[in-house]
Design a protein that fits this description.
The protein is α+β, with helices and mostly antiparallel strands and 233 residues long. Helices cover 26% and strands 30% of the residues. Strands 3-4-5-6-7-8-10-9 form an eight-stranded mixed sheet, with helices on both faces. It has a two-stranded antiparallel ribbon with strand order 1-2. β7, α3 and β8 form a beta-alpha-beta unit.
Length: 233
């Protein structure tokens, strides 16, 4: 542990530190999906597949908004996503069908201290529990660490949202703790669980993602051979 001239313990040196960059990419291409900055061209797909009345009721329990009952209502929400710089929202476009099947965002963007969060994650039933969904998270994390140069990548959720916490751990985020009575939403309390990945952890996680996504890890029926959290780096 480093100490200063007064004998007090201090953090590790960051003499070559540079501030991170603000997200600007409009297209991030992968093998199974492409992340595209949300635009009007995604309206029909996102309403039909993700945000509209046909979406699964259960996925809205822990989100700050409800699904949209009509296209005019959704139009207002989409306009906010398009115009906002933070959150910076991406549509997840399936490469095979060409349809937007999910949406997520980079948010709480702090370039000075090199910290950023992935949030507002909304998947269609077609995207959930698929190889494509994992690739989408991999593409976003790679963009954050390798192009934007962030030191810290966060995931937060309602502490009662078991599926979100499980997903964070599977993707390599580490649990840091729970902030009690952090928010009020939908007229109820939210204790918020915090998770993160830091830059020094990314190289091993990147290898794990790439090995998991490889064809070698899937059988002839498309089933995974090794789970992401257990695969060799």
């Amino acid at each position: 542990m480093r100490t200063n001239s007064l004998g007090q313990e201090i953090g590790e040196a960051a003499e070559d530190y540079q501030a991170a960059l603000f997200p600007t990419s409009h297209v991030i291409r992968g093998r199974f999906c492409t992340l595209e900055k949300v635009s009007e061209k995604h309206f029909d797909d996102l309403y039909r597949n993700v945000y509209g009345p046909g979406s699964d009721d259960k996925q809205w329990t822990y989100l700050p908004i409800e699904k949209f009952a009509s296209e005019p209502d959704f139009a207002g929400h989409l306009a906010k996503l398009i115009n906002a710089e933070d959150p910076y929202s991406f549509a997840i476009v399936d490469n095979e069908s060409g349809e937007a099947v999910g949406c997520f965002a980079l948010m709480r963007i702090n370039t000075e201290h090199s910290s950023i969060e992935v949030g507002h994650v909304v998947y269609s039933e077609r995207l959930k529990r698929t190889r494509t969904a994992t690739e989408a998270q991999f593409l976003l994390a790679r963009y954050v660490f390798e192009e934007l140069r962030y030191r810290r990548y966060e995931w937060k959720c309602d502490s009662l949202n078991a599926s979100s916490k499980k997903a964070a751990l599977r993707l390599g985020f580490r649990y840091e703790g729970t902030f009690r009575q952090a928010l009020v939403y939908k007229k109820r309390n939210r204790d918020t669980s915090w998770f993160s990945i830091i830059d020094k952890e990314w190289p091993d996680l990147k290898n794990r993602f790439e090995n998991w996504l490889s064809d070698r890890n899937f059988d002839e029926h498309g089933n995974q051979i090794s789970p992401l959290r257990k695969i060799d780096t």
